[in-house]
Amino acid sequence: MSAALPVTRALFDEVMVPNYAPAPIIPVRGQGSRVWDQDDREYVDFAGGIAVSSLGHCHPALVNALTEQAGKLWHLSNVMTNEPALRLAKQLVDNTFADKVYFANSGAEANEAALKLARRWALEKFGEHKQDIISFGKSFHGRTFFTVTVGGQAAYSDGFGPKPAAVLHAEFNNLDSLKALISDNTCAVIMEPVQGEGGIIPATAEFIQGVRELCNQHNALLIFDEVQTGVGRSGKLYAYMHTPVVPDILTSAKSLGGGFPIGAMLTTTEIASHLKVGTHGSTYGGNPLGCAVAYAAIDTINQPAVLDGVLAKEALFRAELEKINAKYHVFSAVRGQGLLLGAALNEQYKGRSRDFLLAAAAEGLFVLMAGYDVVRFAPSLVIPDADIIEGMARFDRAVAKVVQG
After folding, report:
1. Where does pyridoxal 5'-phosphate bind (predicted)?
2. Where would a tag sit more exposed on the chain, N or C end, judged by fewer CB atoms within 10 A?
3. CB atoms within 10 A of CB 364
4. Distance between CA 55 and CA 372 in Å, rounded?
5. Taking the CB of residue 224, how many other CB atoms lie within 10 A of it?
6. What mean pLDDT comes out for the span 223-228?
7. Torsion angles phi and psi, residue 331, rounded to 5
8. CATH domain 73-301 topology
């Protein structure tokens, strides 16, 4: 097929595995928080590629990092290390609790590494009985068979045969339910500081503190899945920094590469020592292109002006959503932290988040769902206030259309 031949949405149905149902729109270029489709129609982007495009589209710092590295070195494999990987690892270590970093290509891979490390740590330190992993209902940790089993949504893990064993699920924000499950057989508890796919539900400060204390009591590791909350999205570099709690292992992806696929697992020297040579790996993990872009992304985001700006933009988003809700009465609450926000639909509109998403697209706005009851917003961390105002004007029209039927 010639590159010059037209590419349509129908081609997807012809050549792609049918596990996705993409919108009819095919975007072809983006700049900042605006995107244009094949017909040159312009959209405001409040979706950010599902909390990935942390600096919007084609940010000069990321474009420069990628193009400069593309002219030097693309790939080596982990038979050798490379300069961008070492620079990025040092940057992550210097700016977090961690001493050691492992690179992967996605959030699922970062979580897979974290869970394997926790199991190996427990086996070597305590013995084979200590293997239970506790997660929470409605959690999401990736789509590998291990991570999807640990995630608390059976719809994603059922139908693929026998699941990995010794995985338990407590109720999020309910310490008593965790107390009932945790024991000296628990090797790790994994949690999102804000549940993303589960409906943009922040963990309470008391819950985070309580989980940490229970892990300490039972010699279990606390894993923070910061794939969606990390790299500035919460208004801090990582969401754990809003609390006095420090995890034992942290996973990062999405915003980390600003659109380039990369994931990372961060931990301490002592815990990291259990992934000895040959115990885990990734052909592409830590590739020079991804690491060069991620370094530029963190360098740009981890500045007081940007991080404070996230909180100011959160306040603007909430104020605009409040105005819309005062007119149409469709949301029961706006939840979340920083620029990861969810507008929960009230009883009258429950189950209809996709209707709002489609209506928004028709008005020239990209939003997301977090289940069928929540409209999710995860825009660029540096989205101009003018784009927030314009996007919300479009969302207002979309909400009006849904309400009017």
Report:
1. 107-108, 140, 225-228, 283
2. C
3. 19
4. 27
5. 30
6. 98
7. -105, 140
8. Aspartate Aminotransferase; domain 2 (3.40.640)
With a cut of 70, say whether residue 298 has pLDDT above it: yes
Phi, psi values for residue 37, rounded to 5°: -95, -175
Binding positions for pyridoxal 5'-phosphate:
107-108, 140, 225-228, 283
CA–CA separation, 86 and 80 (whole Å) = 11
Average of per-residue pLDDT values in the chain:
95
Report the candidate in 42, 41, 45 with the shortest Cα–Cα distance to residue 32: 45
Q: Which residues are annotated as a binding site for N(2)-acetyl-L-ornithine?
A: 143, 282
Place of tokens 């995860």: 378
Residue 201 CB neighbours (<10 A):
21
Q: Would you kindly state where each structural domain of the chain is located, as residue ranges?
A: 9-59+304-404, 73-301
| CATH no. for 9-59+304-404 | 3.90.1150.10
Q: Residue 332: what residue type?
A: S
Indicate the annotated binding residues: 107-108, 140, 143, 225-228, 282-283
% of the chain at pLDDT higher than 70: 99
- Which of 260, 274, 251 lies closest to 101 in space, CA to CA? 251
User: Beta-carbon neighbour count of residue 124 at 10 Å?
Assistant: 12
Q: What is each CA distance from 129 to 10, 123, 178, 216, in whole angstroms?
A: 52, 8, 19, 18
Between helices 385-404 and 304-328, what is the axis angle to 10°? Answer: 20
**Residues belonging to the active site:** 140, 225, 254
pLDDT band per the 50, 70, 90 thresholds, residue 2: low
Name the 3-class secondary structure at 375: strand
- Tell whether the model's pLDDT for residue 367 goes beyond 90: yes
Residue linked to tokens 């991570």: 147
Query: Considering the entire predicted model, what is its pTM?
Result: 0.95
323, 388 Cβ separation under 8 angstroms: no
Report the SS3 class of residue 148.
Answer: helix
Listed in sequence order, the residues at least 6 apart from 281 whose beta carbon sits closer than 8 Å to its beta carbon are 78
